[in-house]
Amino acid sequence: MKFSDQFESRFAEMLTHYPTKRSVLVPTLLFAQDEVGFLSDEVIHELAGRLDLTDLEVRNVISYYSMLTTKPRGKYNVQVCTNIACMLRGSDELFEHCKERLGIGHKGTTPDGLFSLEEVECIGACSWAPAAQVNYDFHENLTPEKMDKVLDEYKKKGTQ
Amino acid sequence: MYLIFMGDVTLTVDGKKVTAPAGTLLIEACKSAGIEVPSFCYYPNLSLQGACRMCLVKIEKMPKLQTACTTVISEGMIVTTDNDEVRQARKSMVELLLGNHPLDCPVCDAGGECELQDMTFSYGAAESKYIDAKNHKEEQQWSPVVYFDRPRCILCYRCVRVCGEGMDVWALGVQNRGVNSIIAPNQEDHLDCEECGMCIDICPVGALTSGAYRYKTRPWEMKHVGTTCTHCADGCKTTLGVRRCDTGMEIVRGDNRDKSGINGDFLCIKGRYAFDFAHHAERLTQPLIRKDGQLTPATWEEAFELIGKRFAEVREKHGGQAIGVVGSTRATNEEDYLLQKFARVVLGSNNIDHHRTADFPALAAALSGKPEMTASMRDVFNAPAMLLIGNNPTEQHPLLAWQIRNNVRLHRARLYVVNSQPIKLRRQAASSTQIPAGSEGKLAAFLAGDDSALDVLVGAGDSPAPDPSTSLSAGSRGCPSPHDWIALREKLRGEANLVIIFGSEICGNNIPSLVKFASAIPGAKVICLADYANSRGAADMGLYPDLLPGYHRVTDAGKFREEWGGVPEVRGLTLPEMVESAKAGDLKGFYVVGANPIGRFGVDPYAFSHSFVVVQDMFLTETAVMADVVLPAANAYEKSGTFTNTCGDLQLVKKAGEVTGSKSDFEMIVRIADAMGFDVRKLVPFGRTMHFDTGQSRGVQSGEADRHAVWLQAQGLEPKMSPFDPMAILDEIQRLVPGYDVSRINLLAGNDQHTTLAGSGPGALQNAELIVPAQDDLFSSGTLGRYSRTLNSVIENHHKEPAETDVAAD
Q1: B179/A contact by beta carbon, under 8 A
Q2: Is position A132 within any domain?
Q3: Fewer CB within 10 Å: N-end or C-end of chain B?
Q4: B92 lies in a domain?
Q5: How far B795 CA lies from chain A's nearest CA (Å)?
Q6: Structural domain of B135
Q7: Which pLDDT belongs to residue B479?
Q8: How far is A44 from B449, CA to CA, in rounded Å?
Q9: Which residues contact B231 (CB under 8 A, 6 or more apart)?
């Protein structure tokens, strides 16, 4: 299968960083997921072949990391932290609000394919709790109202 | 870690001084001092896991308890393996493991031989603080022989490691993490693998169970007999669990609980599951005599009387040369020896042959008079370098492949592969070279110094291109150049103690070439690969029309003539010559013991229509259906004796199963000689030294070994009271066959004893066309495989078309 030139140059460079090929698996999976959206059977097979691993070994690694997924996700993956600091500052209500607003549950995806929702462990933003992460962007000191604005913006961006 | 030796280290374990080589793991050092540290995930020769936390011990000056399986010993270490703190820690670990593990040992297949059960009893952790419901998952069938019961799994990863590191199959993995971790097969819900069953054997609990054995019986209800496998020529020790049944003794299970064999931890699918041919519904259980054109059940007396009469008639009227005899590659050494002695002494004919799968006479000839140059199966695990020419051990010699792989993995041995196919072992190879099929002989010539052979190795435009990824010189893509070949030869010449392993592709005059090459390398040894369990034994025992036991020529019988009182000096007929002779009407009698020449060689079944044909076999094979008398034979799991594996390792075969109505080939041969009016004392040297001692005078105490009897057996001096005692013939073999004078006590104790070819007779050049490889793969095993339900179910599951050669090997 074909990846972008950027992926290929990153992949080639990474191979020079480690003594064994298999060591580049985790970062490679992340890059591939960013590019394809999820880790399809095709991606798994391709990377396994490149790194002299079995498909099974690649799947084992993917299943270990919660940030890697083998199922397609929405364009924007909304990750609401519900760990202790965020919880004390109202993340449970925030997560409930997201569920209602998007009409989906934990690990669900909206029918238009725009949003996915996920309840995640600590994302390291306790000082600005409650916090959520949409793809790689952080949104802090959230309330349900603020969250609505955030989601509106993404919706606008996504449907333009 | 195992490679670094910096002298010995002394430490204190439970107040005992323990000395072990530097680099030893604490758990192993404890074991060597007789102190058992419990563990689930630690397994010798597999990578370290540190997953189960059962081996926690207290080490002074270390703040927390340490895992003995990952700690390397150091000087002055003071270790406590058993105190309240340690016991409490282990108890908690067992409690955790039992958190999700069902407590239904009485219905679990592993009950009674479960390491978790033992640990729970040791640490009294059956009570639990956990009140959550256990997470139940349904059992899964991953293949015809592998079942997985997820809740029982304790995630020790042994199965994952043995499959990947040990077998190089990598069919098992671990998915998810933490409490959700599960062992997963490579095809989502089933396995695509070599079906060796190593994962089941190594599983400490009842999570992985065998489709062939599960829920049939309990380990304490079986008798366990360690014997030698009857399938390929590697000679693994397999432990058969037997149980009384309606028709004698039923074999219920095969495994290798007794790891003392040359195979150590290893067994393949055949050794583990393919014993079930013994109880196939079509097994013959009474003699058949052809009456009015039909094979009709008869009594043993009738059958022997008829055979004795007819064979004697032929011998009187037409001479011994009018009878042909075909021996077996799955009969014991004693039976094969007895059969050729029967042919030569009773029939007075050298017309004896067998299904040849390797050229041992040429090897014996090449090695004759040289210092010992044959490697044992054990040597393959320890050699610093190995050269493999031809064959595909992964399919045809699974143990050999295991030894090679693990030697490379654990000892960093160098493997050189030269093959016409991209065989799987190239993955372990330091260098792998593909050559045109049929040019293996040229390679032998080239190695021996004949550079003109290079043309064939290098050229051959229409040959398959070598595998570029592993080709001889990593840089050059395409065929290796003459320069590459010469570099390889130089490299090999520098490999001291090289073990050279070659398949049947190398035979005849190429063997002396290869031996010449090997002789120039200090400590080099060779292994010649044949295909059946006792192919080597059949050759060593002289199932050749021109060779006596030990590769002595019939024209130079020497001590055999003295001992037997006469040996026919005329070279006998080979198997194809017997067929021709029968067609011409000259061969009046044909005696086939445990072989299927009609099915195997595609011989015209009507060739023998004018001969009196006697067949001894388990089933009505293509050869048996055209016989005049068929005698139901016992298989190798149902008799005693010895096997010689393809390396020359002699091992004991012990009787495990029994099917009423069959007899061993040994007994049948003796009875036929008797029915011919021959004095069987001249055939089997029994009852000679009659200093008979029943042991009654020695006052053996109950429960104590009869040491006097053990000593007598060890010297081979126990009274042989019966003409059917194979040990009487083993005496003669040890006396007369060069290389077989090994320690009897070690043999009887179940150890392999390497026989040598250095003292053999001169051998003789054989026609290479007589060598017909069995072409068996991992899941086929000639006639035995055809009647094995388990093997057939696995073949079906792998959606393989039945192979063309599926008809009938021996």
Answers
A1: no
A2: yes
A3: N
A4: no
A5: 23
A6: 105-210
A7: 72
A8: 49
A9: B270, B271, B274, B533, B781, B784, B785
Asked if residue A48 is part of any domain, the answer here is yes
Contact A60 B175 (CB under 8 A): yes
Residue B804 confidence (pLDDT): 44
Separation of first and last alpha carbons in chain B: 46
Residues B195 and B118 in one domain: yes
Answer whether B129's CB lies under 8 Å from B167's CB: no
Q: How far apart are CA B546 and CA B534, in angstroms?
A: 20
Find out whether the peptide bond into A130 is cis, omega within 30 degrees of 0.
yes
Q: Using DSSP bridges, classify how beta strands B414-419 and B385-389 pair: parallel, antiparallel or unpaired.
A: parallel
Identify any residues that bridge with B209 across adjacent strands, giving them in sequence order.
B147
Q: What is the pTM of this model?
A: 0.91
SS (H, E, C) B452-499: HHHHHHHCCCCCCCCCHHHCCCCCCCCCCCHHHHHHHHHHHHCCCCCE
**Which chain B residues touch A59 with a CB distance below 8 Å?**
173, 175, 184
**Contact yes or no for A56 and B170 at CB 8 A:** yes
Question: How many domains are there within chain A?
Answer: 2
pLDDT above 90: residue A102:
yes
Mean pLDDT value of segment B697-721: 69
pLDDT band for B466, please (50, 70, 90 cuts).
Answer: very low
Residue B75 and residue B165 in one domain: no
Give the containing element (helix H, strand E) for B360.
Answer: helix B360-367
- Which residue of B lies nearest to A64 if distances are taken between CA atoms? B176
- pLDDT exceeds 50 at position B218: yes
Q: Which of residues 272-311 of B touch A (CB under 8 A)?
A: none
Predicted pLDDT of residue B689: 60
Q: In this structure, what DSSP letter does residue B553 have?
A: B
- Are A57 and B177 inside 8 Å of each other by CB? no
Give tens-digit pLDDT for A114-133. 999 999 999 999 999 999 99
Chain A contacts in chain B segment 149-178 (CB below 8 A): 170-177
Determine which of B141-150, B434-443, B702-711 has the lowest per-residue pLDDT on average: B702-711
Q: What is the ipTM of this complex?
A: 0.83
Question: Do A42 and A107 fall into the same domain?
Answer: no
The confidence score (pLDDT) of residue B624 equals 96
Question: Does residue B465 carry a pLDDT above 70?
Answer: no
Average of per-residue pLDDT across B68-93: 95
Chain A residues with CB under 8 Å of a chain B CB are 54-57, 59-60, 63-64
Q: Show which of A19, A39, A64 is a domain's final residue.
A: A64
For A119, the domain range is 76-159
Tell whether B406 and B324 lie within a shared domain. Answer: no
Is the CB of B452 inside 8 Å of chain A's CB atoms? Answer: no
Q: Are residues A57 and A106 in the same domain?
A: no
